[in-house]
Specification:
Helix content: over 70%
Number of helices: 2
Structural class: mainly alpha
Distance between the termini: 63 Å
Shape: elongated
Strand content: under 5%
Length: 70
């Protein structure tokens, strides 16, 4: 390959590396935001009851789905 092509490829790889690093940083920020939001929601009154209701809704949906499939 010509040196010019190799330099272009190197520049593209470097650019992609920089973009990937930014994506990873942003992903980490989103993860931290998600964890913080979840921990905040856990402190709200009625959280345990809401989780129990969600669990029972999931069980009901699974049972209905099993009834339809049988």
């Amino acid at each position: 390959m010509k040196e010019k092509s190799l330099l272009e490829m190197k520049n593209k790889v470097d650019s992609l590396t920089n973009v990937l690093q930014q994506v990873l940083i942003e992903l980490n920020h989103l993860r931290e935001l998600g964890i913080g939001t979840l921990e905040t929601v856990k402190l709200l009154p009625g959280y345990s009851e809401a989780i129990d209701e969600l669990k029972s809704n999931i069980v009901e949906k699974k049972e209905k789905k099993l009834e339809v499939n049988n």
